[in-house]
Amino acid sequence: MSPAGGWDFVNLHWMCGAMQTGAIEVNQAQARIVRLLMPDMAQAQDGFQPVPDAPGFGWTPDEDALARCRLS
């Protein structure tokens, strides 16, 4: 099984619970959005995605970056 569809940062907890190992799909456009809006999100290294140990999804959104995305 290989989860697809991108947004791996949202699906990360599901992937950890559903599988011991395996491939995940990483969408470059979605990864860029994540880096812009949540700069402290851990990035994949050496082919592995680190799992945050913080509560919830384990990341803190950049509120200023999110504000710039809002439609008036």
TrEMBL record:
Domain of life of the source: Bacteria
InterPro entries according to UniProt: Enolase-like_C_sf
Stated name of the protein: Uncharacterized protein
Species for this entry: [Roseibacterium] beibuensis
Organism placement in taxonomy: Bacteria, Pseudomonadati, Pseudomonadota, Alphaproteobacteria, Rhodobacterales
